[in-house]
Specification:
With 897 residues, the protein is of the alpha+beta class. The protein is 52% helix and 9% strand. The relative contact order is 0.03.
C-alpha cells in the first residue's frame, strides 16, 4: 500500500520537492498546512517512534521557511531524552533552531544536558556542548559550569575545543564565573592542536573583557605562551591542513595578535616582551596575498594599541603606507582609518606618506576620497599649509560635483585656521569662490567680508581681484555676493586703481563697468532674494560713489517697484526715493560700513558652530578662551573673569552682552544713529548674524522697522512698532519719517494718531537738522577712566518715560604719542543690569589726542532707585605690535541712574 505523500512517513526530500513545486504562495501554504497537520497527528498518536526524528527534521525546514512550529518544542525535548545518537542529534538541532534562551520550556532540558555532558560517548558530549554554547541562559550557565570545567581537562581535542567555546558563552552570560576558567584557559595555550589553541585564545579574550582580575592574571601567565604560539606558527613549515595562500593558519595569527593587543594596552612590561615577535611578524609576512595583508593589518593595530617603541611604530606606519599603494580599495580604506588614529601618536611618521595620501584624495572611490581628505586635514600644520592647500585647490577644479562640497569645506577650514598672512588668505578664498562658489557655506563668505573690511591695505586689491574673477566665474553664487558687496563699498578703489600692490597688474574699469557687473548679478540670480537684495544695496551705494551713474542706477532700481517679492519691492521704492529726492544727505547716508570686529565675530561664529555639533561627535568644542584667531587678528590677553566681574554691589555677577552685539534696526543703520535706541517691541534679537544685520537681509519689513509700502490693508491691521512715538496707524503707503522734522518732535508720553491720506515719500521732509524725539536732555558727562595712557569719557542721556534706561556715548582718547591698534572695549555689569553694546567707530586710536574712537551702549537698571549703576571695564589694544591691557571700575555715575 503506497504512503500518502503528506503522511508523517513522507521523507524530508519529498516534502521539500513538493514545496518547491508550488507555483503560488497559496499552494505552498497548503502543502505546509497538510504536512503540519500530519506531524501533529503523528506526535499525538505516540506511534511510529522510528519516524519521530524524521518529523522533527521536516518541522525544522518548515520553521526556516517562516511558518509557526511551536507545537514541536516538546517533541525536541523527547528526542533529546532518547538514548540513540540519531534522535539526540535531531533533538539538539531542533532545540537550537526552535527555541532560544528566553523560552521557559528550556529549563526542562537542563537535566538532560547535564547527563549528556557526562556521557561516555564523546559525540553525544559534543552535541550537548554545541547546544549549550548556542542557547545557554544565565541560570543554565550557573548550573552546568562545573561540568564544562571538567570537560576542559578532557584528553579528546574536539571535546576540549567545544568546551572552550561553550565556556565563552558561559562567561558572557555570567561574568562572575570568569575566575573559574582563568587557570584552565592559560593551560590550554600549551596545547599543540590549532583548533584548541584558537578556542583557548578566544576564551582568554572573553575573560579579559569580563574581569580585570582575569586580565591581570593572564598578563602574568599567558604572555610567554602567546609569544611562543606566534613564533611557532610564523616559523612553521608547510602544513596542508592549516595553509591558506602559502601562509600557515592566518586565523590563529589574527586571534593571537588581538589578544596580545588587549594584554599590552597600558602595560609597558608586556609591551616590551612583545616587541620582538611583532617586529618579526611585520617584516616576514608577505603582503602580496590577502591573508598576509590581514595579518599585517592586525599586527599594525596591535603595535599602535600597545606601548610599543617608536621604531616599531614607524615600521607599522610604513606598512600602512604600502597599503595605500595597494590596488584593493578595502585595504586602502582600512589603512587610512588607522593612519587617522596614528597621527596622534607619531605625526612625523605619517607626514612622510603625505604625497600618497594626497593621491588618495583623487581616488575614484568616494569613501576613500572622503577618508583621505579628513586625514589631509589632520596633517596640515603651519609649515606645510601652503603646499597642501595648493594641491587641494588645484584638484578642486576637476573634482566631482558630489565631492566638491566636502573638499571646499576642508579647504576653507584649513585656510582660516592656519593663514598667517591676510593676502594669502584672500588669494586662496578667491580661488575657492571662483572654482566652487556654489558649494561654499554662508558663514565662510561672511567671514571673508569681515576680513576684507578689516584689511584696509588690501581692500583695493580685493575688489579688483573679485571683479576680475566675476568676469570669468559669474555663475558662482558666493563669489558674486562677496564681489557685489565689495564693489558697493569700495567701487571708487576699483575704478581709480587705489591701493595697488607691487606685483599687481593694473586694470581698467570704468564706472559703467562696475555698474554692469552688479546689474549682471542682479539679473542672473532672479530667484535668489539674498543676492538680489545685496545687489540693490550695492547699486544704492554706487549712486553715491559715482554721481554720473545715478540716473542709470535709478532706472535699474525702479524695475523692481512692482516685484512680487516684498523685500525687493520695498528696497526698490526706498532706494529710488533716496536717489531721486535726497541728494543732500545721500553721501553721508551711504558711507562705508564701519570696520567689523573680526575677533568678536570669530568668537561668535565658533560659539554658533559649537551649538550645532552633534552629541556623538568626540571632538571637543571651541570656546572663546581657546579660539585661534587667524588672518593676523590678535587675541586680547586673557584676564581673570572674576576680576572683571568683581562688583561689590552684587554677589553673583554674570557676563554682559558681547561687544559684537549690534542692533538689527535698518532705520538706525540707514540714518547712522546707532547710539539712539528707537526700537521697542518687535525688534529682533541683537544676536542676529552680524553680516546679515549690516546688509539688512533675511528679515521681514516689520523686523527692520519699516512699513510695508505695498499693502495698505496690512498697515491698517498692524501698528508700526519700531517708532511708536511718531506713527500709530497708517491706512495707506506714506512717508515713514514724514513727521520727523525740527517742528514735529513729540514727547514720549504722546502717541501721534495722525492719518496721512495719500502716499508720500519715505524720507520726505528729512533734513540735516532733523532731530529724533524720545531723548531727554543730557546728563552731565563723566570721566569714567583715566590713566597715563588712556582717557574715557561717558556722555549720558536718559530716555523720557523710561527712567531705568540710560544711553551712554563713550569717547576713547589716546594720551600717548604712539597710535593704538586693534582697540577693543569690554564691559561687565551685575545681573540686575542689562547691557547692550553697539559697534565702535573704529579700532585704531590716534596718538596725542588728535582723534578718538567712539562707541555707544545702552544699560537698563531693573532695580532703578534701589541699587546704583555699577560697571567694570576692560580695554585691550596693541602698541607697536605688543599687547596691552587696562581695566578699572566705573563708580562715579550720577545718582538716579
Amino acid at each position: 500500500m503506497a504512503l500518502n505523500p503528506f503522511s508523517s512517513g513522507t521523507r524530508l526530500r519529498d516534502m521539500i520537492r513538493a514545496i518547491r513545486a508550488s507555483k503560488t504562495a497559496a499552494e505552498e501554504r497548503a502543502v505546509v498546512r497538510r504536512e503540519c497537520a500530519a506531524i501533529r497527528t503523528a506526535i499525538s498518536e505516540r506511534g511510529q517512534e522510528e519516524l519521530r526524528h524524521r518529523n522533527m527534521a521536516k518541522l525544522m525546514f518548515i520553521h526556516m521557511l517562516g511558518y509557526p512550529t511551536h507545537f514541536g518544542q516538546m517533541e525536541c525535548l523527547k528526542l533529546i531524552a532518547a538514548a540513540g545518537y540519531p534522535e539526540k542529534r535531531i533533538g539538539y538541532l531542533g532545540l537550537m533552531l526552535l527555541l532560544d534562551e528566553r523560552q521557559e520550556v528550556l529549563m526542562l532540558v537542563t537535566n538532560s544536558l547535564k547527563q549528556d555532558l557526562n556521557h561516555s560517548n564523546p559525540f553525544i558530549v559534543g552535541l550537548a556542548l554545541c547546544a549549550l554554547g548556542n542557547i545557554c541562559s544565565a541560570e543554565m550557565a550557573q548550573d552546568l559550569a562545573p561540568e564544562v570545567e571538567k570537560l576542559l581537562r578532557s584528553r579528546d581535542v574536539n571535546t576540549k575545543k567545544k568546551a572552550a567555546l561553550c565556556s565563552v558563552r558561559i562567561v558572557r552570560k555570567v561574568p562572575d564565573l570568569a575566575e573559574n576558567f582563568m587557570g584552565l584557559a592559560a593551560s590550554l595555550l600549551k596545547e599543540k592542536h590549532h583548533g584548541v589553541l584558537i578556542s583557548a585564545v578566544q576564551l582568554c579574550t572573553e575573560l579579559c573583557k569580563a574581569s580585570k582580575d582575569a586580565l591581570e592574571y593572564l598578563r602574568k601567565n599567558c604572555i610567554e605562551g602567546l609569544v611562543r604560539i606566534l613564533r611557532d606558527v610564523s616559523n612553521s613549515s608547510y602544513a596542508p591542513e592549516y595553509d591558506v595562500a602559502g601562509i600557515s593558519d592566518p586565523f590563529l595569527h589574527i586571534r593571537v595578535l588581538k589578544l596580545m593587543r588587549m594584554l599590552g594596552q597600558g602595560d609597558a612590561d608586556c609591551s616590551e616582551y612583545m616587541n620582538d615577535i611583532l617586529a618579526q611578524v611585520a617584516t616576514k609576512t608577505e603582503s602580496n596575498k590577502n591573508a598576509g595583508n590581514a595579518i599585517l593589518y592586525e599586527c599594525v593595530e596591535t603595535i599602535m594599541g600597545i606601548e610599543a617603541t617608536s621604531g616599531l611604530r614607524v615600521l607599522a606606519i610604513n606598512i600602512l603606507g604600502r597599503f595605500l599603494s595597494n590596488r584593493d580599495n578595502n585595504i586602502r580604506y582600512v589603512a587610512l582609518n588607522i593612519l587617522m588614529r596614528a597621527i596622534t601618536v607619531d605625526t612625523q611618521a605619517v607626514q612622510r606618506h603625505r604625497v600618497t595620501i594626497l593621491e588618495c584624495v583623487k581616488d575614484a572611490d568616494a569613501s576613500i576620497r572622503k577618508r583621505a581628505l579628513e586625514l589631509v586635514f589632520l596633517l596640515v600644520n603651519d609649515t606645510n599649509v601652503k603646499p597642501l592647500t595648493k594641491e587641494l585647490v588645484d584638484y578642486l577644479d576637476v573634482a566631482d560635483p558630489d565631492f566638491k562640497e566636502d573638499l571646499t569645506a576642508k579647504i576653507c577650514s584649513i585656510t582660516e585656521k592656519f593663514s598667517q598672512e591676510k593676502l594669502w588668505y584672500l588669494d586662496q578664498m578667491l580661488k575657492v569662490l571662483s572654482l566652487a562658489g556654489n558649494h561654499v557655506k554662508d558663514d565662510v563668505w561672511h567671514a571673508l567680508i569681515v576680513v576684507i573690511s578689516n584689511a584696509s591695505e588690501l581692500q583695493g586689491y580685493a575688489v579688483r581681484s573679485l571683479y576680475t574673477a566675476l568676469q570669468a566665474y559669474s555663475e558662482q553664487g558666493s563669489l558674486l555676493r562677496v564681489a557685489v558687496w565689495c564693489i558697493g563699498e569700495y567701487g571708487e578703489m576699483l575704478v581709480n586703481n587705489v591701493g595697488m600692490l607691487e606685483a599687481e597688474p593694473p586694470i581698467t574699469v570704468t564706472e559703467s563697468d562696475a555698474v554692469d557687473a552688479v546689474e549682471l548679478g542682479f539679473n542672473r540670480y532672479s530667484a535668489d532674494v539674498t543676492t538680489r537684495s545685496m545687489c540693490l544695496v550695492a547699486l544704492l551705494k554706487l549712486s553715491s560713489r559715482f554721481p554720473s551713474m545715478s540716473e542709470r542706477i535709478k532706472q535699474i532700481v525702479a524695475q523692481n517697484k512692482e516685484n512680487m517679492v516684498l523685500e525687493l519691492q520695498q528696497r526698490s521704492i526706498e532706494f529710488g526715493s533716496i536717489i531721486q529726492r535726497h541728494q543732500s544727505i545721500r553721501s553721508s547716508l551711504l558711507e562705508r560700513m564701519p570696520v567689523l570686529d573680526e575677533a568678536a565675530y570669530l568668537v561668535k561664529r565658533a560659539s554658533a558652530t559649537q551649538a550645532t555639533i552633534p552629541a556623538y561627535k568626540p571632538a571637543s568644542g571651541v570656546t572663546p578662551g581657546d579660539l585661534k584667531l587667524p588672518n593676523g587678528v590678535a587675541k586680547p590677553a586673557a584676564a581673570p573673569l572674576v576680576d572683571l566681574l568683581d562688583l561689590s554691589s552684587d554677589d553673583a555677577p554674570v557676563t554682559s552682552t558681547s561687544a559684537t552685539t549690534t542692533p538689527n534696526d535698518f532705520l538706525q543703520d540707514l540714518l547712522g544713529i546707532g547710539g539712539t535706541n528707537l526700537s521697542t517691541a518687535g525688534v529682533p534679537s541683537a544676536s542676529t548674524d552680524i553680516l546679515m544685520d549690516l546688509l539688512s537681509i533675511g528679515s521681514s519689513p516689520s523686523q527692520n522697522g519699516l512699513l510695508d509700502l505695498s499693502s495698505p490693508a496690512q498697515a491698517e491691521q498692524k501698528p508700526v512698532s519700531a517708532i511708536p512715538q511718531v506713527v500709530s496707524l497708517v491706512p495707506e503707503p506714506m512717508d515713514l519719517l514724514g513727521s520727523l522734522s525740527s517742528s514735529a518732535s513729540s514727547s514720549a508720553g504722546t502717541k501721534s494718531s495722525t492719518v496721512v491720506p495719500q502716499a508720500a515719500d519715505l524720507l520726505d521732509g528729512l533734513s540735516a537738522s532733523t532731530s529724533v524725539s524720545g531723548l531727554d536732555d543730557a546728563c552731565p558727562s563723566i570721566t569714567a577712566f583715566q590713566s597715563a595712557t588712556l582717557k574715557i569719557v561717558f556722555d549720558l542721556r536718559k530716555q523720557l518715560g523710561k527712567p531705568q534706561e540710560t544711553t551712554i556715548h563713550a569717547t576713547f582718547t589716546n594720551l600717548t604719542s604712539t597710535t593704538y591698534t586693534d582697540f577693543i572695549f569690554q564691559a561687565a555689569v551685575p545681573k540686575f543690569i542689562q547691557l547692550r553694546l553697539d559697534p565702535a567707530s573704529g579700532n585704531v586710536v590716534p596718538a596725542s589726542g588728535k582723534g578718538s574712537v567712539t562707541q555707544g551702549f545702552n544699560v537698563t537698571n531693573s532695580q532703578h532707585g534701589q541699587k546704583p549703576l555699577a560697571m567694570r571695564i576692560r580695554m585691550s589694544y596693541k602698541v607697536n605690535g605688543e599687547d596691552r591691557l587696562e581695566q578699572g571700575q566705573v563708580s562715579n555715575f550720577p545718582p538716579g541712574l
